[in-house]
Design brief:
Blueprint: H1 3-10, H2 15-18, E1 20-21, E2 42-43, E3 50-56, E4 61-65, H3 67-89, H4 97-111, H5 117-130, H6 135-151, H7 157-173, E5 178-182, H8 190-194, E6 199-201, H9 202-208, E7 231-235
Parallel strand pairs: 1-4
Antiparallel strand pairs: 2-3, 3-4, 5-6, 5-7
Helix pairs in contact: 1-3, 4-5, 5-6, 6-7, 7-9
Amino acid sequence: MGIFNFFKQTTKANYNHDTKDTRKAECPYCNKALEKIPAKKTKCPHCGQFIIVRTNPENKSRVVVTETEAKKIDRQWSEIQFYKKWIENLEQFNVTEKDFQTKQLALNKKFGHKASTHDVIWGIFNTLIVMTNDPQQLRMINNEMALFLDDEGRNPFPSLFEASRMELLFLQSTGCKKVEIHTTDNQSCKECNNQNGKIYKIENAIKNMPIPCKKCSFKFEPNKKPFCRCMYLTITE
């Protein structure tokens, strides 16, 4: 059963109520009998290997598995949660589960193998980009793309840059003449705080693109890339 089909089924079911317990008092390594059914991580008294308890995402059964099998199950659950998170985020752009399936089939054909959920979501974002010329929509799409890249541990700067550029173009189209840089909170990095409150003529902001800050060091998590959260405020005259 594929990840997508599994997710469709689990949206209609409760994990706790529907989980089946198929654990056995048997080591998954050496197949020797155990005194009792494992309820948590434990060491086999016969072969000394660690036995893990997990819920299989494909049939929602509680199982006793090896460490290697547990890692595979954990990756499956991670993929399911990733899909759920981003298909919900894409709903704001009227993307449906059917759209996901269609894009996945197209990428399968293009790649010659099954496209990953990550590739499909990124492909959908790029399709959304070419479907609109609206700066506001493009700003929103690029902001989500930046968050997606951050989620994957990749550099979000290019998408943040484009989101900021689209915002400035939109503000310029409304007649805005000046903008002020505003940091989000007291956790902003030194470089971002240094430009907090700076005012730019709209044409200069578009030309120089002061945000996202190129030297921003703020990270949502230590292992992630910098993610500038500075924003523009409009200056009325």
